TrEMBL record:
Transmembrane portions of the chain: 242-265, 285-305
Organism the protein comes from: Dimorphilus gyrociliatus
Name of the protein in question: DgyrCDS8830
SUPFAM superfamilies: Toll/Interleukin receptor TIR domain
Matching Pfam families: DUF4481 (PF14800)
Keywords in alphabetical order: Membrane, Transmembrane, Transmembrane helix
Keyword Membrane: yes
Record InterPro entries: DUF4481, Toll_tir_struct_dom_sf
Amino acid sequence: MNYGELPETDDDEFDGLTNRVSLKDTNNENRIFLVWHVHDSEMGKSVQEHLESTRYGFKCFNQDDLFHADPDLSLAECVVQGVRNSAKTIFIISSMMLTDLWAACELEVLPELNFKGFKSDFMLLIVQEVELPFIFTDVFSLNASTVGWWNKLINWLTPTDSVHILSTDTNRNSPGLAGVNPALQSGHLLLSYRSRCGCCGREQIESELPEELMAHGLQIPNDEYAKAISNLMQSFKARCHLCCFSAPAAAVFFTSFFVLCLTIIPFVEVQLFVSSAPANTGLEYIHGCLIWLTSLSFYLVVSYLSRRRMNRLMAAELSSINSIFVRHNVLIGMEDLSIADCNKYYVSFLFTILRAFI
């Protein structure tokens, strides 16, 4: 890959080991977590070594450091721990990074990024031109092939108006909570809806801001709320249609196909492939059952993969919504009851005092 040039560092000035972060250190100040694919390890290690030099003095670590410290951790757990225990996170982006590493840990990492201040404490260092996922649309990024990217990286790591997750007392006195019910505690359930998908019944969640939320003094723009709820319901309806329409249709089809496999297929097999006088041997029925089981297995695999994909998309949509709502001290949680109760679900609104001031 054609990376941009890193600044030259004298050997006597280069003392990265003295700045190597201790994984047991609980102080997150100046800790930089770098994530890269093994294919981009040369670039990642070079960036880390320069940041750890005495010229810059950052404390850095990466997912490999966490894995070597605890080999029982999975890749996703390493990335989540790194994001949780760092002040800033840098993802080195390439096609291999997105298709392999990010795809493996996306669902586990997104909630952590939302609480950390997604747009402020997270950046993309692009080493290969790729199409970024939608969740990264507004995230700060640098192209390593452009001139001056290193200075921009250092400026991003040392801003004058850094974003911090404020404590309870500080946040209570913040302008963003003016007028909010002082009795509210973090995790308080503000509102809960029980609804069902559009094909089974009428939607109960309206796009207008509920009076129950306004009664607590929370200021959520109507347009943001309407857009968030609309997107969430669309994601859920797409998943419901898979159950409400495809499952009954598949039941009718495979019932009919089973009858076909035990009648028409054995008859055709006997007439075409038995050279002597046609007679039933029993094997033709076994062949018919095998054809039916093969087609049913194929349908179940496709259905499972489709449902899994829709669940991932809905979880990503929920994370994207919470990255916006957390600025208004609200988090949305969704509990799917489709298996137990015909595609019904709970949507809960929770109050949070963890707020990133952007």
